[in-house]
Design goal:
Chain lengths: 267, 333
Amino acid sequence: MKLKKYLTLTRAGIIEALQFRLSFLVMVVGNLLYLIVVYFLWKAIYASAGTDVVNGMTFSDTLIYLVLATALFNFMEMYIVWEIGRNVQSGKIVLDLLKPIEYRKYLFWAYSGTFVTQFFLTFLPTFIAVAVVTNGAIPMGINLLYFVISVIMAVSINYSIDFIVGTICLYTESIWGINIMKQVIVLLLSGATIPIAFFPDTLKTIVSYLPFQSIYNAPLSILLDGEPKPQTVFTTLGIQLAWCIGMMLLSKLFWKTSLRQITVNGG
Amino acid sequence: MSAIIEIRNITKEFKVLNRREGLKGSLKDLFSRDYKTVRAVDNISMTIEQGEIVGYLGPNGAGKSTTIKMMTGVLEPTSGEILVGGNVPYQNRTRNAQEIGVVFGQRSQLWWALPLVESFKILKDIYQIPDADYEDMLSLYRSLVDIEPLLHKPVRQMSLGQRTLSDILAAFLHNPKIVFLDEPTIGLDVSMKSKIRTLIHALNQKKNTTVILTTHDMGDVDALCHRIVIIDKGKMLYDNDIEHLKSFFGSYRTLRLRIDGDLKAQAEIIGKEIPECSVSADEEWISVLVDEEKAKVIDVLAKLQKTHRIKDMQLMEISTEEVIKKIYEEGVK
């Protein structure tokens, strides 16, 4: 069976992730600290604004959005750029290239185990906590189904972007700067650190033509919309699907042409 | 026998940045870059038959790994043709990967945190090995080495020797037509080296797997290879059987001795006692180069032991580097 070839990598990823108990603890604590900072920062912003509603969002709207964005980030971020860069530098990439699976797929499935563990260990608890604490601020209906579909596409777009940036490492053979740049750009323009509603109009227009908002803004706005109009949902999902396919093809093409560039280090 | 690997006139060139020296130079490099072309592999041709064990030798930086990377499909040759099992490796890398196994002595393809048996199961699924073949292979492994204690040990807790052994088993698991072993015995102790040589030999015999072995250890070559290919600076120097190569290094051994007193003076005395050998001395050792066709090392040692108090001794094999140097100097006879 073909799928087994990939799912075995997911399984290995889960087992591997479960070996490191402490790293989970550290991550949970780190997240908590980040969320505390977010809470006070936005509290200050709302206090200085003097109104309860800023850019159409209340304080609790913003907070719920940002907490879920953080949870989504923890779940989706795979540090692929870092991984590719490190493998290029150490030369380990040769071993991965020699697996009978296309490298793009191999890396994705090798990391898919982290999706599963992160989903259950960070996203789901945060989601439930937010749902319970806010007492029904997250609508529970058909939007959940749309959200799942949206997240799956978001994961794919995010991976493609990571893979494209990771491919650049073949040329530069350095990782750090590129990785930081990518992270800042993606987190800002996707609406993961500041809700897109807060962006100035020009930036909002620019962002709407970029793939990044399909990663965080799209699934979160679908999730938080209690009475989804079919038309809005399908537009959002349609744009996501287009980016999903577009970025996948682009990352594939870029990788294929770049591989000729490769000069594998060491050995 | 049929050819499994055919290489015709391959050349690989890399563009390398000429870096300037110092801080000022580094700053200049940011703005203007000066590339030069380095030819890592220069017009190499060879044909390898199914089931052969070929020793692929050469000093560091000779172009061995580059050639192997071209055979596995990781690198594309600048010019020339390669066919591996009928495929052009860099065009069909994933298909080619199904037919080959690799071991790089310095790195592991195993899942670091998982017990070995988990890595095997993953590889079984990735390579889509049928259950029956997988079981056959495992029982073959059991008959060759004691793998039970290894199977349930996480790879990160293994010693280097155990890890290398596991990596070799992993490379053969999907019964590939060709296995590339890049310095598999690097850093291992003598008993582990011999264990690994026996294992490679047995797997080659049982499965008729072609093995391409790069190494700096002439012991590996002696134990395993019938045919040897030597390259240096990207050019092929030698491609023939090992018997032929032995005429270059086989008969020479260096005997190193430590004796009380002034070594230079002692060396002269020894030189007179055994005129058939050339004797030299440095700060620590007296080196006696023995040509075994003229005198046996054991006889020389016996003779010297009567007249001198030998505190310490070493017997040195001629290294690959020395063989290559000799071939360079004298040419292939």
